[in-house]
Specification:
Blueprint lengths: L24 H9 L5 E4 L8 E7 L5 E5 L2 E5 L1 H7 L1 H6 L17 E7 L3 H8 L17 H13 L3 H14 L4 H10 L9 H12 L5 H9 L9 E2 L5 E2 L3 H25 L11 H13 L6 H4 L9 H7 L7 H21 L1 H4 L17
Parallel strand pairs: 2-4, 3-5
Antiparallel strand pairs: 1-5, 3-4, 6-7
Length: about 375
């Protein structure tokens, strides 16, 4: 697995991908060194070049976070309760404000952060005064989920990371039945196929390798546009690593091969159980197999190896010579069996190690 080190982040090992690792000592020390940047000053003397966020500036807040050119004045309690990094950053004794006679002059820590203001805003919205995290949106946008996972991982907010990884797992599941269900209901309106690029990178960051096969498969469907990456709201572009880009080039060919294999095994010479007219149905199966050469090329070598076969059946057997049981077998039972076999080897097709419990339904809350 490719490891990132842009800001000290690293992927989790498979044995511990459900639990947040302590930040390495070097990074922990680096964060504590930011105490030299933590300015204890009256709020009126806050960083003059930054502008107050119109949404997340609370006059009675006791912590100012500065991201880019935006200041957020929030409450330190929830951050300390849920983030190990903020807990360490703010654990040192604060200077006494006894010498200040007016409450408006009380000292308030001002901490510069090297994060996107938009990302930080998504995360800070989650926190409200209290002992638990707010439930949040049932279907966050990709930008919200991405910000919560990346910043949650950086500042060790485990519950926030796990909640959003669980949401992505519903879109990019590890078991075939959940994948079919996701296809039927479709992607949320704020998700596009290109967001799979971001999901791959988030999976790498968080060590959630169970997301990789389905996300890489969707990246394969992007065609030439994959080299342009994912455009973020701020205009920057998020790219796949060269290694994952190479996996997608190989994966496209393997997906087409899987479709061709399914096509030629669909009409193997065996009728359904309880077939009423075996001789007739065997003859039709042979004809359907022979006529595959005349079928649309996108059906035989389709990248979408889960495509339905109903249209081909209705076109080639328009007189309905197949008995009802054999038609149902070809409409659903046989293709599902063949597609399930492909799903089981999908990690290998995408060039990643098979995740633990691949093919099994994810347990709720895990």
């Amino acid at each position: 697995m490719r490891k990132r080190s842009d800001d000290g982040r690293r992927a989790f090992s498979p044995a511990s991908r459900r639990a947040m690792r302590p930040i390495p000592r070097s990074l922990q020390e680096a964060w504590l060194e930011t105490r030299s940047d933590v300015q204890e000053k009256p709020e009126a003397a806050a960083v003059s070049s930054a502008k107050r966020d119109s949404e997340l500036w609370f006059e009675d807040g006791n912590l100012v976070l500065v991201a880019g050119d935006v200041e957020f004045k929030v409450y330190r309690g929830p951050l300390i309760a849920h983030s190990l990094v903020f807990r360490d950053m703010l654990s040192l004794p604060q200077p006494s404000s006894a010498d200040h006679s007016e409450r408006t002059e009380e000292l308030c820590p001002v901490i510069p952060l090297h994060d996107s203001p938009d990302d930080l805003r998504h995360v800070l919205r989650v926190f409200v005064p209290g002992s638990s995290l707010r439930a949040g949106a049932l279907e966050p946008s990709f930008e919200e989920a991405s910000a919560c996972i990346r910043i949650g991982h950086k500042y060790q907010i485990e519950a926030l990371v796990q909640r959003n990884l669980a949401f992505l797992a519903r879109l990019y599941p590890s078991d075939f039945d959940s994948y079919l269900a996701a296809r039927r209901r479709g992607r949320p309106p704020n998700f596009t196929p290109a967001h799979a690029i971001g999901v791959v990178n988030l999976a790498r960051l968080a060590g959630e390798i169970s997301l990789l096969p389905a996300a890489l498969m969707e990246c394969c469907s992007l065609g030439a546009n994959i080299v342009h990456g994912l455009e973020r709201p701020d205009g920057t572009r998020e790219m796949l690593s060269p290694e994952d880009l190479g996996r997608c080039f190989v994966g496209r060919a393997r997906m087409a091969q899987a479709s061709a294999r399914i096509a030629h095994q669909m009409f193997r010479q065996s009728v359904s159980r309880g077939c009423r007219h075996p001789a007739c149905c065997l003859r039709v199966l042979q004809r359907l197999l022979n006529e595959l050469g005349d079928a649309r090329i996108e059906l035989v070598s389709n990248l979408d190896w889960c495509a339905a076969w109903t249209e081909y059946l209705d076109e080639k057997d328009d007189q309905r010579e197949l008995c009802g049981k054999c038609y149902k077998m070809l409409e659903e039972e046989r293709p599902r069996q063949l597609q399930r076999e492909v799903w089981q080897v999908l990690p290998t097709m995408m060039g990643v190690p098979p995740p633990e419990n691949w093919g099994e339904k994810r347990k709720e809350g895990s």
